[in-house]
Amino acid sequence: GHLDEGTPLHEILRCNERHGVRRTPLTDRPSPLDNGHRSHQTFLEEFTVEGGERRWLLATDIVTGAGENVLSRVDITDHKQQEIRLAVLHRAVEQSPLGVLITDSQHTIEYVNPAFEAMTGFRRDELVGENPLVLNTGEMADETYREMWQTLTVGDVCHGRLINRRNKGGTYWEETTIAPVRDSSGRATHYVAFKMDVSARKEAEDLLKLHAAVFENLNEGVIITDDQERILAVNAAFTRITGHLAEDVTGQPARLLHSPHHDEAFYVSLRNQLARSGRWEGEITDCKSNGAPYPAWTSIISIPGSETRQGHCILVFSDISERKAAEEFIRRQANYDDLTGLPNRNLFTNQLDHALQVAKREKWNLALMFVDLDHFKEVNDTLGHLAGDMLIKEVAERLLSCVRETDTVARFGGDEFVILLEGISQMIDASRIARKILDILAEPMEIQGNRLFIGASIGITVYPGDADDVVSLLRNADIAMYRAKEAGRNTFQFYTEEMNRKLNERVRMVVDMRRALNEGEFSLVYQPIVRFQDRKVEGFEALVRWQHPTRGLILPSEFIPIAEETGLIEPLGEQVLRLALQETRQWQDANREWRICVNISSRQLGQGLTVARIRQLLKESGVDPQRLTLEVTEGLILNHSRETMEWICGIREMGCQIAIDDFGTGYSSLSYIKRYPLDLLKIDRSFVSDIDTEGGDTSLVQTILAMARSLGLKVVAEGIEQEAQLRFLMAHGCNFGQGYFFSHPVTARELETGMNPVAGEEKEWPEPFEVPCSGG
């Protein structure tokens, strides 16, 4: 504001307050003059005037000897603003991420910023006064520096890429921009250089150049696509292989190259594999520019994208047409019949050998058929070999129509064909297919205008019933085929008449078993298990019986093996378990503390008899799990699979017991038994029967009893029929026994009448069940 002369000091101070003047002392305290009679002090005053402009004043306050105040103000705003701009410029250069180097007109370094120090490893004091050539490695051509200097001398800004050395060894690449700094007359007084370390970029560029050279010179075709499967780039080999020009396919979808050979599901599967693992490799049939399909061995790599970068796929492929054609020619010549295209003897023999290995490992059945055409020689002799060849081809087609895709039809030569049926569940399947072949071959064939009727004789052999090697099976099938011819032709025969008889019986047995399961022909009998300690009944073993409507009683030894082979053991086993639990529930309701023992086939474990299923059956029946003992064979524990261990542990966790049935008949050892949480061992009756015979071997029984004691297992002896056997077993610490000495298996009704508790105590058992000896 404006102040008139003579304005009081307090008015001046109030004016300063209104303008918000900030005063910064430039001297620490007033300076005395003339022996203390006068003093003065200097300040920097900063304030904002109307319109928002900042102003600076240099203020001097003088106090005279007479006590008067003399105030002096000089406007230094322009100087202050220039000073601020210089400070900002200095900070910018000092803090710049780019290296900055300033030289005088004679190229002597006057200044470098911290970024330049960091880039080179030199300190500022090591560089100031030096020529920039101190950083030269000698690797750049002199011409490069001359061209840069010529640019500068004509007053232009120059740009370049140089390789320089670092202070502590090593080199780096820099991109530099150098410009002259001119005075008011236009004369270059200094030069300023802005530098960036581009070593990593240079290395990446060099690598890219190398990759580009490899890309263009590869023998394999290369396709690069974006994440939308659009083609971004292809190499020269791509054009050579496919015939497509780069400019024709760039920007186009990759499906342009697909052939109808693959359906959409194939490409969906391929994309899913890429999404999971980032790579895919395999054979693809693609199309060339003329539409011709060709096989390509292709490797695909997926490069994921990000928020700032799209993803890509790189496909590397080679045309394998010639290789596949050569391989296929050699393979077909060696392995296939020229006339029919069927496998020849060489290939079939290999396939049969492989099938046998699989069958042995997986415990599968297989059948081998030898098919010989009846009266083929007459066709050749009367109509000629061309007609004979046409007939052979027709027969081959008809044979193929009779079998599954997994089966094999081969031609051994002449009018001989061989058929391999793998993994058949029942031998009746082979009979059914043989009958189908005879029927279809009996139909007339039109050959060169002639209506021909032929038949065939078929010999059938099976694994594992007849043989377990290629030579024997082929021989057996051939013998059976000749027996079929002897039987009148146009028929089939199994390897032996005995096998035919057994097969027919087995087929009838399977059919009857299926009916019996539905009509309730299976029932249970119960054989008591006696506790030696107090001669009381511990429980019963449930034994299945089949009362056939026409054949009468059929024992388990006749139908259980067939049930296991055909898969009927699963419904039969569950039916037995249900019946046993129903009877046990009645005992439980009557307060009879009897256990029930049920045999479990190892095949049931693989066909649905899970721990959860047994738990459900127990829940449905209402039987306490502690009353149930499941008997398994040694073969199950010899398998020692994780599934078996989990099953046994699950059964015992429910409260049920596990017993090893017929112990000693397998190959169990102490180490196997120790691995499993078992409760009981049941000594097979064959060892018990030796006890009372003259010279009988009792050492194995004693060993089993001793081993069981050491493992904390209880032992049940099966098949006790003599008092001497009982005495021996009791004397050697056996816990339980069962057999005809105590009782034959009894029905549920006989059990009710013979062992019905009265007043809470069991009745006396009739002879010979009562144990006639004391414990040893």
Written account of the structure:
With 776 residues, the chain is α+β, with helices and mostly antiparallel strands. The protein has five domains: 9-81, Nuclear Transport Factor 2, Chain: A (Roll), CATH 3.10.450; 96-203, PAS domain (Beta-Lactamase, 2-Layer Sandwich); 218-325, Beta-Lactamase; 336-495, Reverse transcriptase/Diguanylate cyclase domain (Alpha-Beta Plaits, 2-Layer Sandwich); 508-754, EAL domain (TIM Barrel, Alpha-Beta Barrel). The chain contains 27 helices and 31 strands. The strands form six sheets. The protein has an eight-stranded mixed β-barrel with strand order 23-24-26-27-28-29-30-31, surrounded by four helices. Residues 756-776 have low confidence and may be disordered.
Low-pLDDT stretches: 756-776
Largest sheet, spatial ordering of strands = 23-24-26-27-28-29-30-31
* Overall CATH architecture of the largest domain: Alpha-Beta Barrel
Strand coverage percent: 25-35%
Mean pLDDT over the full residue set: 85
Q: Which CATH class of the largest domain?
A: Alpha Beta
- Here the CATH topology of the largest domain equals TIM Barrel
Indicate how many domains the architecture comprises.
5
Q: Outline, from the CA principal axes?
A: elongated
Global structural class: alpha+beta
Distance between the termini: 132 Å
User: What's the helix count?
Assistant: 27
**DSSP summary, beta strand count:** 31
CATH superfamily membership of the largest domain, which one?
Answer: EAL domain
Describe the biggest sheet? Answer: 8 strands, mixed, barrel
Roughly what percent helix?
A: 40-55%
Round the Cα radius of gyration to an integer and report it.
Answer: 52 Å
